[in-house]
């Protein structure tokens, strides 16, 4: 089962890109998104590479896997719509996102390829974390999001804008690469600090997701001298295991 890479503007046949095997109640689905190349913002060296290496790893773990690189906002929304269809019977959905990000109030946004730097421009080229959860919250299932993007406040946010609490649906888990209000480093050795630590845990340890993320937090905090501290948010109803740890 090969990992399929979706490039920008190449969405012909997208709805048929997943493995054609039927998904059962015990199936696991993963969507990996990396945005390295931007039309109007500074490019990132490692984001697409991070998504690619994790797509290979989640495929090894037995997930029905899709990799999307450098999507525009429209392409990202289409990928989420496809995910909703393909994961309709899945018991667990994993979404990984790497790219530029901002935080407004309590809400987090990932900036897609067509995001602009001028006032209001980033909003037209971004997708919020609640939007991502909405795509996979139509049925009871575990929803796990790995958010390898900055959480720094947007400088040009409208003064009158309102952004509610950062609530997540029941049965959800978010692993942020950084603490609220801080940057997530892109890295210099092929992967970001967060993705490198996550990859190491996926390859070398077993156990519940919460324990894996505690180890990720320790490694990233140590390697960045405390400048980046991975953060988690959970509304899980039972322990979460990645597939190889459950089998």
Automatic annotation (TrEMBL):
Tell me one GO biological process term.
proteolysis
- MF term (GO), any: cysteine-type endopeptidase activity
What Gene3D superfamilies does UniProt report for this protein, alphabetically? Answer: 3.40.50.1460
Superkingdom, natural source: Bacteria
Tell me which SUPFAM superfamilies the record gives.
Caspase-like
The organism of origin for this protein: Shimia isoporae
Task: Specify the Caspase family p20 domain's residue ranges.
Answer: 26-151
Where are the coiled-coil regions? none
Protein name in the entry:
Caspase domain-containing protein
Q: State the family named in the UniProt similarity comment for this chain.
A: Belongs to the peptidase C14A family.
The signal sequence is none
Q: Which Pfam families match?
A: Peptidase_C14 (PF00656)
InterPro entries xref list: Caspase-like_dom_sf, Caspase-related_regulators, Pept_C14_caspase, Pept_C14_p20, Pept_C14A
